[in-house]
Amino acid sequence: MRRLMLGNQAVARGCFEAGVKVATAYPGTPSTEITEYISNYNEIYCEWAPNEKVALEVAIGASIYGKRAICSMKHVGLNVAADPLFTVSYTGVNAGLLIAVADDPGMHSSQNEQDTRNIAKAAKVPVLEPADSQECIDFVKKGFEISEKYDTPVILRLTTRVSHSQSVVKEGIREEVDYEYKKDIQKYVMMPAMARKRHEVVEKRLNDLREFAEGTDLNRIEEGKTNLAFIAAGIAYQYVKEAYPDAWVLKLGMVWPLPKKLIMDFCSRFEKVYIVEELDPFLEENIKAMGIANIVGKEVFKLTGEYSPSFIKSAVEKIYTEIPYSIAQQIPPRLPVLCPGCPHRGIFYTLSKIKDIIITGDIGCYTLGALSPFNAMDTCVCMGASVGMAHGISKASNNGKKAVAVIGDSTFVHSGITGIIDAVYNKSDIIVLILGNSTTGMTGHQDHPATGYTIRGEETYKLDLLNLCKTIGCSVVEEINPYNINENLNKINELLKVPGVKVLIAKAPCRLHKRYKYTTLKRYVDKTKCKNCKLCLSLGCPALSLKDIPVIDQNLCLGCGMCESVCRFGAINSVKE
Amino acid sequence: MKESVNILIVGVGGQGNILFSKILGDVFLNTGYDVKISEVHGMAQRGGSVVTYVKAGRKVFSPLIDKAEADYIIAFEKLEALRWIEFLKKEGFLIYSDYEIPPIGVITGMYEYPDVDKIVKQLGVKFCKIDILSLLSKAGNPRVQNTVMLGVFSKFMEIEENFFKKAIENNVRSEFVEINLRAFEIGRSVDLGEVRI
Ligand code: SF4
Ligand code: SF4
What we know:
- Chain A: Heterodimer of the IorA and IorB subunits.
- Chain A: Its cofactor is [4Fe-4S] cluster.
- Chain A: Keywords: 4Fe-4S, Electron transport, Iron, Iron-sulfur, Metal-binding, Oxidoreductase, Transport.
- The structure holds two protein chains of two kinds.
- By secondary structure, chain A is an alpha/beta fold.
- Chain A has 20 helices and 23 strands.
- The longest helix of chain A is centred in the middle third of the chain and has 24 residues.
- Chain A is globular and about 80 Å long.
- Helix content of chain B is 39%, strand content 22%.
- Chain B is globular, with a radius of gyration of 16 Å.
- Chains A and B meet through β1, β8, α11, α14 and β21 of A and α1, β2, α2, β5 and α3 of B.
- Bound molecules: iron/sulfur cluster (2 copies).
- One iron/sulfur cluster binds next to loops of chain A.
């Protein structure tokens, strides 16, 4: 049956059809839905791991045991998983191992724009790049075949526009694949003597894969009717086809290693060949290194952000589309905001009232605390960096500047724990606020070890953050209620004077999570008491807006009561639903 | 229907863009077209500006719609209609809900919410403005704005009504099918002659 399918859903479908038995991931946009869709297939064991490194290690174990496995992550997650990646390239696999990595050109929801192909090349791992949902299914299956035939992990590179686009697919049936586990310390124990031999194997494998790339139908020449010629892969291929349906295209489905003969032959037929690729000049540089000179790449195409068909046209022919309707006036930006009722709001409101502190932030919904109206965050680098950076700041300033780290519970488990251990060990004086909303909010409410539920919603052992922090030696560990603004302000001010690593766990589940039920007492503004001081608006709650005086939208208000507690005139009252 | 159609669905995170585009995608798929839909996730879900692209035609390559390429822009929020107006073709059509959600900068007094109706008229865009609050009160549920808008939009497509209804049934959770079908009818009963101004 023909049906529309999201790219990520198609990757999951491909895994099901390819007989995958184990799927692991840490959620990250734009890769999250791969594992979520896999969790609908009972034939596949799947899990959220605390981070991408662990996720990959679990998948490697499954593969070596003889079961096909997939590990999914976003591009920055691959940095976390780089350590096992570089070595599983040496050990190779038993049953197939696929690593799906979703890049985010245009940074729709990421802190940088890195290009996964560079890491894959450095790790000497082949890369397949699908261009639509049907290819997502097909390339997953092909990826497992290559993985097993060439004894290598395979990276499936996706980008936001492939992961988050729906296109038409045909579904197939599941094929069961099993291999037997055989102990082989020469292959699986990478101590120097064995690793030296394996490195030879890896280099030979790359040569074999180069040979394979020449003949596979993953790479194909599409004949054109003009003299215009392109080399492209992934979503860039679609842009080229739309802009120039009559051009010649060498479409690469396998982007590493590259088919040298095929490319040389293609390029020799034309005066010049355009290489269209988002982000880094990866194909361009590697093709230039083959000694091919008649190619045009980043001198006309940009290095940053997403492409589009008209961008390609304007770069190739300097054609610009005229825009019939445009507005001179500046339109108010609509930046993302913390949701109505969000418990993080109370913490950032509190922090914004404290002077002379440096607030190191982290990755999650609460990164929005950096924006207006709070402006309560100084840094945000990567998952887990808040704690280590706060420690660094306190040491560098000789504790002259007080540092407060803010980190979510999911992120804390991902990679905040080791930072705390370091800070305690090296006698730091910092405050760490763990925003325990009992979910992974930003990516759409996934579970993690501290929620007490697995990916399929089964109950499991619940990691106790309070006792964990006590055990690893924090001088103060307390739970606080983020909605108690005044109390928390006093507490944080007090703790700034106390030595050691102080942890406050702001405990209040995400208001939007269906699992947690709140009794809602919606608020309204009493016109007779309101003095129009607008203090309540400084909370930045989307339910509150200014008409003549502040008003509360009853459709949006989740009744958290924070606005009631900041109003000095008792003008905000509650109504029972 | 025409050879191909490009539709931009714009609004604020949480207004139901994605469901709208899924239903629409199904309609096109079942009437024999190739379809691509592209969505934006992540940060945009936290009350930010969101856009979804739906493209149908004999063969669709890029899932993106560029500036000046949309046949229709369907806006679930007034200000967002303006934000994306550059994507409309010269002969394109804007269908917008007059629902207002002030962005945080407007709430805190940094910006003013512009007079959208006035600007749309000045631009000379062909448009259809939907008085959504009165339609929603008929529907009795504020969460079905997207299906009301779908009902309105369905009148612009030369596609049989039943394809839309089937697609709603296939994509909406069973307990909400009835209310959504009602919302669709309400949208479909809007008199275009009246609202075209
Ligand atoms: S804080 Fe109270 S008095 Fe001040 S504007 Fe808000 S509701 Fe009115
Ligand atoms: S109670 Fe106040 S702060 Fe909380 S959601 Fe409602 S309007 Fe927003």
